[in-house]
Specification:
The chain is mainly β. The protein is built from 1 helix and 37 strands. The chain has an 18-stranded mixed sheet that branches. The chain has a 5-stranded parallel sheet with strand order 8-11-14-17-20, with no helix packed on it. Strand 5 and strand 6 form a beta hairpin.
Length: 340
């Protein structure tokens, strides 16, 4: 749209400039750049993405730093937002809600490029900040009824001490080729939850690094990554996981996997206490044993750190003939399989 045709609307403290190629909304020295249509509701503090579009296609500009005054982000049906949301500090009484109108078609999209973080020089401990939704500082965030597809980095993550994230009725997907996209599915601070969701990515599905609740969720197991990853390091940590109604499905075409469905890769002097009511694992094939440098029959576990403790009580379990697998970690494992 030529500049002469631009519309400038002033609503209280909100200044809205509409352009065919770029729309910039600014209030109280905070702005968003997005090429599609959106609407700001001052009374409800809701920003609604109405048509598909993109954030600026730069390394950092692609991620909108959501102002604390925004209480709700809505993505309409049949809308694909190319970009990501970075959440900064918010008071607990001011949670952020990111909501889709239609789970399948309300999409937060990242990139078609594989291994984006490596190609763009992102260090290993910074890759989570390039998520579809990354909670950079302490905040409570609810993500509901959206699809997060092919993120530049992780999918939904928060590594701040109080980055509490609740994911409900979402699809966290990486459909690109390759095993080096670093698109780990979910990580949040203690008190986070994942419910009624699907996670399908060629990296770790859910990182159980802090207290978490998982309910009615399916995780697809690809060649790379573990559906439940209990640690790549850390020490002196005690974590509890409450799980109800979890399905893990192996989907590698060659039935070969780098990790087991439940894996604890590394750690020191730490404890994981896990309670499961309802687990079904549908997987067959082989897992790669790094010490032996050979493929071995896959089992439920790869619990590697010998100076850590893993305690599991699980009922209503269907393993479909899957053996226990590798257990070097101390602790008690009590599994009651469901009657056929």
């Amino acid at each position: 749209m030529p500049q002469s045709q631009m519309r400038r609307i002033k609503l209280q403290s909100l200044v809205l400039t509409c352009v065919h190629l770029l729309q910039t909304s600014a209030w109280a020295q905070v702005s968003i750049e997005y090429s599609g249509d959106f609407e700001w509701d001052e009374q409800t503090a809701t920003l609604t993405f109405q048509t598909s579009g993109t954030m600026p296609d730069s390394k950092e500009g692609f991620f909108w730093r959501v102002p604390a005054r925004v209480k709700r982000i809505v993505i309409d049906a049949n809308v694909q937002v190319r970009g990501g949301f970075r959440v900064l500090y918010r008071e607990k009484a001011n949670p952020l809600h990111i909501v889709g109108k239609d789970r399948k078609s309300s999409v937060i999209f990242g990139t078609d490029e594989d291994a984006w973080t490596d190609r763009n020089g992102v260090s290993e401990n910074e890759k989570w900040k390039y998520s579809s939704v990354s909670v950079i500082e302490d905040a409570v965030v609810h993500v509901l009824n959206v699809t997060c597809l092919n993120p530049r980095g992780y999918i939904i993550s928060g590594y701040a001490n109080d980055a509490v994230i609740h994911v409900d009725s979402c699809s966290l997907l990486d459909t690109r080729d390759g095993n080096n996209n670093n698109s780990d599915g979910f990580a949040g601070a203690g008190g986070s939850s994942v419910t009624n969701s699907l996670i399908s990515t060629a990296d770790d599905g859910i990182k159980v690094y802090s207290d978490i609740t998982i309910e009615n969720t399916t995780i697809e197991h690809h060649r790379n990554g573990a559906p439940l990853q209990f640690g790549w390091g850390g020490k002196n940590e005690t974590v509890s996981a409450q799980i109800k109604g979890l399905v893990i499905k192996g989907v590698d075409r060659e039935n070969r996997y780098n990790m087991a469905p439940i894996t604890w890769e590394r750690g020191n002097d730490s404890v994981r206490n896990v309670s499961i009511d309802g687990l079904e694992v549908e997987i067959k094939g082989e897992v790669y044993n790094e010490e032996e440098m050979a493929w071995r029959p896959i089992g439920l576990f790869e619990l590697k750190p010998s100076d850590c403790e893993f305690n599991l009580t699980a009922v209503n379990v269907k393993l479909n003939g899957l053996p226990m697998g590798l257990r070097k970690t101390k602790g008690t494992v009590d599994i009651s399989e469901a009657l056929k």
